[in-house]
Amino acid sequence: MNLFDLTGKTAVVIGGSSTLGGSLAEALAAYGAKVALTGRLADNAEPVRKRIEEAGGEARCFAAEATSAEDLKRLLGDVIEWTGGVDILLNCPGVNSATPFFEIAEDEWDRIMNVNAKSVMLACQTFGEYMVSRGEGGSIINLSSVSSGPPLSRVFTYSASKAAVNSMTQFLATEFAPARVRVNAIIPGFFPAEQNRSILSPERVASIMGHTPMGRFGDPAELQGATVYLASDKASGFVTGSLLRVDGGFGAMTI
């Protein structure tokens, strides 16, 4: 009984050129899915594609701006032309900032909200409508954050954007459920991705470690199992609207 076999499925990974997105894309490919990797430039995802194909998987790179409805609609058409359909959508673009609240400019707020929240809404509109209308089910996985609630200090806009991702996930789970399209989110703890390295001062790291029972950062590979689980209809066919924590126990404690 292979609960995690994704053979014959096609996965679209928005932000597939990123540290976490690339790792999750590799996991989906390892379990049999064909993977469409996106980045602002197609070449940005080439290293991930090469790793997938060297491991025996199949992937292709596509240029797409995650905050552009036009780009996402074009991407959907291109992927359908390549494999014949889309079964899995993984939303994982992200940008962060530690600007103090009173110093946050409108353009910074807009940039973070656009990348982290608007992109998820647009991708779910484009690919969700396709999955619902096709009538064959599907899985949408959004990458959230422990900052989504309660919010983390120093990252006001990021926290607000990830709270929005959680709300969208649960709202769309109920909207899409009759069509057997599942919508879930993964809540990662602290993983040393590019978007947060610049704000990880020694003081910040000490604070994080003091609040993480496992006492360490996560490795991107430790998000792979959760992703494959949520992608697989056999493993999680009755799972929708869930916010799955992979955080080393961060969310399980207060002080």
TrEMBL record:
Q: Name the InterPro entries on file.
A: NAD(P)-bd_dom_sf, Sc_DH/Rdtase_CS, SDR_fam
Q: Which Pfam families match?
A: adh_short_C2 (PF13561)
Q: Print the keywords alphabetically.
A: Oxidoreductase
The family note in this entry says:
Belongs to the short-chain dehydrogenases/reductases (SDR) family.
Q: What is this protein called?
A: SDR family oxidoreductase
